[in-house]
């Protein structure tokens, strides 16, 4: 079988060509991604009757992506989530970042990793296919110190796993928090809201936030609150009790501190599609698509409130300003490594 193909997706204003890569596996799964932002344009999986659908929110053309979208499927960097006031200090030096979310810095700033063309290369193995994205983020980009060399590999295996492996190195001390920002709707992108999806998040604690979504400090127990997803629960079951909807960082309860650990499981009862996430990261941001309001479309459908959800595996928001949180500092000579695996399936 042919596992890899590629085609021109479009051209940027300066003439740079953007390529879309397609990965296929032996089980009928397809993943597509472009070298602009490493954006996942499609994840097609069969439902319980064998009918495939694209289950990640997407736009239909490069021009649409360039017009704007709330981080659909892209690589987020240098720092996923928020840094309070766009400021932090490291080794006694103050750094000022772009503020692009009210008073705060969000998802890498005005032109984050999602808005750059990456060097991309596809490769095939006996039981998988992958795309390797590479980019050097120059010293000072969006205010961050150090030349940062980043590699992100998306692999599709014959076990229906979409695996993302991140590595990075720097030549000056810096901070780093990489993730992928895919929005999921296991019933198919555009096929209604996700409130009926049953979600399990393996987390006993979460980070309460202020009105600008900056964590207040210590993680709090989810027990006896609408934040508790330890038992599979419909996303919509208690969402009305959470002001603004879910947009919170969950601290994962890990059996072992190292290696891949279970993060979340999602079941969409009508289609039967399931997704299980394993990660090496300490936390996951669960975002219930609260700010989607019909102004961005894909496949001819306007994505309305709660039409997709994100489970962004990452370090805690605002870590650079919170010495008690697990560190997000990367120093010369160290290698940043992070792996997240999405396993897709169906229930009867
Ligand atoms: C954030 C949301 C934000 C969304 C799109 C999520 O990671 O937590 O607050 O609206 O990204 O930018």
Structure description:
The protein is mostly beta strands and 348 residues long. It has one helix at 62-67, and strands at residues 4-11, 17-24, 30-34, 40-46, 52-54, 75-76, 82-83, 87-90, 93-96, 105-106, 119-124, 128-137, 148-157, 161-170, 174-175, 179-180, 198-201, 205-206, 220-221, 233-234, 247-251, 261-267, 273-279, 283-287, 297-298, 301-302, 310-314, 329-330, 336-346. A nine-stranded antiparallel β-sheet has the order 11-12-13-14-29-23-22-17-20, with no helix packed on it. The chain has a five-stranded antiparallel β-sheet with strand order 1-2-3-4-5, with no helix packed on it. The radius of gyration is 19 Å and the shape is globular. Bound molecules: beta-D-glucopyranose. Residues 70-71, 213, 247, 285, 287, 291, 310, 312 line the site of beta-D-glucopyranose.
Task: Summarize the SSE layout with pairings.
Blueprint: E1 4-11, E2 17-24, E3 30-34, E4 40-46, E5 52-54, H1 62-67, E6 75-76, E7 82-83, E8 87-90, E9 93-96, E10 105-106, E11 119-124, E12 128-137, E13 148-157, E14 161-170, E15 174-175, E16 179-180, E17 198-201, E18 205-206, E19 220-221, E20 233-234, E21 247-251, E22 261-267, E23 273-279, E24 283-287, E25 297-298, E26 301-302, E27 310-314, E28 329-330, E29 336-346
Antiparallel strand pairs: 1-2, 2-3, 3-4, 4-5, 6-16, 7-10, 8-9, 11-12, 12-13, 13-14, 14-29, 15-28, 17-20, 17-22, 18-19, 18-21, 21-24, 22-23, 23-29, 24-27, 25-26
Spatial strand sequence of the major β-sheet: 11-12-13-14-29-23-22-17-20
Strand count, sense and closure of the main sheet? Answer: 9 strands, antiparallel
Radius of gyration: 19 Å
Shape descriptor reads globular
Stretches where pLDDT is under 50 for at least 5 consecutive residues are none
Task: Please state the structural category.
Answer: mainly beta
Question: How helical, in percent, are the residues?
Answer: under 10%
- Overall pLDDT score: 98
Q: What gap, in angstroms, lies between the N and C termini?
A: 28 Å
Number of helices: 1
Bound molecules: beta-D-glucopyranose
Order of helices and strands: EEEEEHEEEEEEEEEEEEEEEEEEEEEEEE
Strand content: 35-45%
Total beta strand runs? 29
């Amino acid at each position: 079988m042919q596992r890899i193909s590629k085609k021109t997706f479009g051209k940027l204003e300066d003439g740079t060509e953007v390529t879309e890569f397609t990965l296929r596996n032996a089980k009928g799964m397809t993943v597509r991604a472009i070298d602009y932002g490493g954006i996942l344009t499609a994840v097609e999986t069969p439902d319980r009757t064998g009918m495939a659908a694209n289950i990640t929110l997407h736009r239909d053309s490069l021009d649409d992506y360039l017009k704007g979208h709330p981080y659909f499927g892209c690589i987020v960097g240098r720092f996923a989530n928020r840094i309070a006031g766009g400021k932090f200090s490291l080794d006694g030096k103050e750094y000022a970042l772009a503020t692009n979310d009210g008073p705060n810095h969000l998802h890498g700033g005005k032109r984050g990793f999602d808005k750059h063309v990456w060097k991309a290369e596809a490769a095939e193995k006996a039981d998988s296919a992958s795309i390797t994205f590479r980019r050097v983020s120059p010293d000072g980009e969006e205010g961050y110190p150090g030349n940062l060399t980043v590699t992100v590999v998306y692999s599709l295996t014959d076990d229906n796993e979409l695996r993302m492996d991140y590595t990075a190195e720097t030549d000056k001390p810096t901070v780093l928090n990489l993730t992928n920002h895919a929005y999921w709707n296991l019933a198919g992108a555009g096929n209604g809201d996700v409130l009926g999806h049953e979600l399990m998040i393996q987390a006993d604690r979460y980070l309460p936030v202020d009105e600008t979504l900056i964590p207040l400090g210590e993680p709090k127990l989810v027990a006896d609150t609408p934040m508790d997803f330890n038992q599979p629960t419909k996303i919509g079951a208690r969402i009305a009790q959470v002001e603004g909807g879910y947009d919170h960082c969950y601290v994962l309860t890990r059996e072992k501190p190292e290696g891949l650990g279970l993060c979340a499981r999602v079941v969409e009862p009508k289609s039967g599609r399931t997704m299980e996430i394993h990660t090496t990261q300490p936390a996951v941001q669960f975002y219930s698509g609260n700010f989607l309001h019909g102004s961005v479309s894909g496949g001819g459908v306007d994505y309305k409130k709660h039409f997709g959800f994100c489970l962004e595996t990452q370090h805690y928001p605002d870590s650079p300003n919170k010495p008690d949180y697990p560190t997000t500092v990367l120093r010369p000579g160290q290698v940043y490594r992070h792996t997240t695996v999405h396993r897709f399936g169906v229930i009867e």
